[in-house]
Known about the structure:
Layout: H1 2-7, E1 10-15, E2 18-23, E3 26-31, E4 37-40, E5 44-50, E6 53-58, H2 65-84
Antiparallel strand pairs: 1-2, 2-3, 4-5, 5-6
Amino acid sequence: PASWRVLGRRRVRCSPDGFAWSASWSDVRVGWRAVDRISSDDHAAYIHASAPNAYIVPRRAFASDAEFEAFVELARRYQAAAQDA
Length: 85
């Protein structure tokens, strides 16, 4: 899509400590305690780290719907564990 040509590729990494969002122009690391919620729809996952902003992870970035759903579930588990700690 044209947006990839303008914005370039981005990478999101998920770990027990938080997530990292990187692009050619920026690297952001956010701990799970700073994440308000994680939502998803037919198009993407949304990691809400500060209202009204969200980090958007497109479903099309995954090889399958199962991989996308597994990513969302893992992120939710990490976020919930951080909130309980």
